[in-house]
Amino acid sequence: MRYCINCCIHLLPNDLHRQCFRCRGPDHNNQKCPVCKGENKIPLYTDSKQMKWLAVLEVRTDHCESWNGFFCLRKGKLCSLMFGLIVMTLVMVSYILTGAKHGLLLIPSPFHYGAFASNPSLMDNESLSDMKDHYQPSKMNISYVKDYPSIKLIIDTITSKIEFITRQRPDLEELRKQEPHMFSVIPNKFLPNSKNPCWYEEYRGNTTTDPYATNSYALYSKRFRVVFDYLRKVFWNHLYHYKGKHYRLRCLPHFYIIGQPKCGTTDLYDRLRLHPEVRFSASKEPHWWTRKRFGIIRLRDGFHDRYPVEDYLDLFDLAAHQIQSVLQSEAVRERGRMNNIIIGEASASTMWDNNAWIFFYDNSTDGEPPFLIQDFIHAFQPNAKLIIMLRDPVERLYSDYLYFASANKSAEDFHEKVAESLQLFEGCVLDYSLRACVYNNTLNNAMPVRLQVGLYVVYLLDWLTVFNKDQILVLRLEDHASNMRYTMHKVFQFLDLGPLSEKQEALITKSPASNTRRPEDRSLGPMLPTTKAILRDFYRPFNTKLAQVLFDDAFLWKRT
C-alpha cells in the first residue's frame, strides 16, 4: 500500500493514490513539486515505504482490521473503566443506605474510632474539618459491649487530666473596653422604687417614628412580629412626658433561668410565668447574651449583624409597660410603695455557651476565654438572681440527642456518637486545660453529642467567681418531677414573691408538664446499658465535685 505524506489528508487504498491531483505517481519528487519544494520534511517509513512525519492521516481499512487494531483496544479499556465506576458507585450507595452498620460492608463505620493522638499544634479557630483531620483515629475498633475496656482507658485518661482551677476575674475597665456601647446604654443605677432593675431613657422620635423598625428580632424572626406589631400600636401611650421631653421605661431581667438544656427549664418557665408578680421577655429564650449580641443566629450559618443591646431591651417592653403603670399609680407615688413585678429571662444557653469568644476576644491565655457571659451580666446587675435546673447528665445527654438529632436515631447510633465524642474530648485535654476544652468552639462543634453541657460543676464554679452563692438557686429535675409543689415554693421563696391563693397555686403546680419527650422518641427505648456505664464513669468525677460544692449528695445521681 502506498501513502502520500505531502498533500493528501486521506490514505487512499491501492493505486487510487496516483489520481491525486497534486502528486504524479511513484516518481513524485519533492524538489520539483511546487507544493513540496523547499520543505525539509522528515520521511517516515511504514511497510518499507517512505512517509512524512506530523501528517494528519485517516486510515480506511477493512472493518474487521479496525476493530482488531488500536480502536478495539481503546474501546475495551473504556468499557473496563465504565464497569469499574459502576461497581464503585454501587458500593458507595450501599454504604450510605445501610449507614455502615453491623459490619456488612468491607470498610468499617467512620464512627468506630480509637484513641486520638495529641497534637499541641491544634488552634482554637480551626475549622470543623481541620479538627477531625487533626484527631486521627487509631486502629482500635470500638463496638458496643466488647469495647467497654477500651473506652474506659480513654475515660481514665480524661479523669487524670481534670483540674478545677479558679479563673481570674477581669476588672471592670477591661469589660468596658470590650463592650463600650453596652456600657453607654445601661446605667449603673436603677429606679429605687422598683424591685426590678428599670430606668427612664429619653425618646427623641415623634409620633410617626417606628421605634422597632431596626429591631433584629422583629426583622429576622417571624414569631416576634406579632408582638412588635402590638407594641407599635401602644408605644406612644406608654411614654412618660416630663418638661417637654418624652421618656420610655427600660428594664433588664431581675432573674435569669440560665440552664441547662433538656433539664426542665421550659416547664419551670411555664409555671413561673403564671405567678401574678412575674413577667418574662417576649420569648422564652432570646439567647442574646450568648449568641445574638455576637451576630449568631445559627453558628453553622456563620455570623450576621450583631444585635445591639437596644434590641434586647425591646423584648421587655411589654413587662415594662405594666411596671410603669404600677409606678405611676397613686399607691406608689404617694404612699411610697414598691413595684413588686419582676421580669425573668430563660435562655438555657446562658450558663454554658461561650462559644463565640474566640471570634471577638483575642487576648486569651492558653486557649481559655478572657471574658465570660457572667462577667458582663454581673457588671450591670451585681444583684441579679440566677436559677439553674439540672438533671442526671447521663439522661440529659440521651434526651438532648433524641431532641436534636435529625435522622437515623437509635441507641446504637447514640453509642457510636458518645464514643467518638469521648475520644475528641480526650484529644483536647491531653493538650489543653479543662476550661479551655469546655469552652472550645471547634471541639464543641466537632463532637456529635454535647458531652460538655453535662459538666455542670465547671460552669457553676466559673459563675461563682463573680456571683455570691446565695444569688444562685440550683434545682434537680428529678426533685421537680416528684414533688413539684416543693420545688416551686423554693423558687417563690428565692425570688421573694408574694403569697398565692389556693386556686393560683393549684394552677401553677398541677398543670401538665411542658416539653416532654416526643412519642416517636419514646419508641426508640433507653440507651444501651454499656453506653450508660460509659457515661456514668465519665461524669462521675464532675458529679462528685458538684455535690461537694453544693453540700448535697443528691447531685451524685446514684439512684437514677
From TrEMBL:
Q: Does the keyword Transport apply?
A: no
- Name any one GO molecular function: N-acetylgalactosamine 4-sulfate 6-O-sulfotransferase activity
Task: Indicate the enzyme's highest-level EC class.
Answer: transferase
Q: Which UniProt keywords apply?
A: Membrane, Transferase, Transmembrane, Transmembrane helix
The Enzyme Commission number assigned here is 2.8.2.-
Which segments cross the bilayer?
78-97
UniProt cross-references to Pfam families, sorted A to Z: Sulfotransfer_1
A GO term (biological process) for this protein? Answer: hexose biosynthetic process
Q: Does the keyword Transmembrane helix apply?
A: yes
Where on the tree of life does the source sit, at the highest rank?
Eukaryota
Ranges for the Sulfotransferase domain? 253-517
Q: Which InterPro entries match?
A: CS_Sulfotransferase (IPR052654), P-loop_NTPase (IPR027417), Sulfotransferase_dom (IPR000863)
- Family affiliation: Belongs to the sulfotransferase 1 family.
> What is the protein's name according to its record?
Sulfotransferase
According to its UniProt entry, this protein's organism is: Cephalopterus ornatus
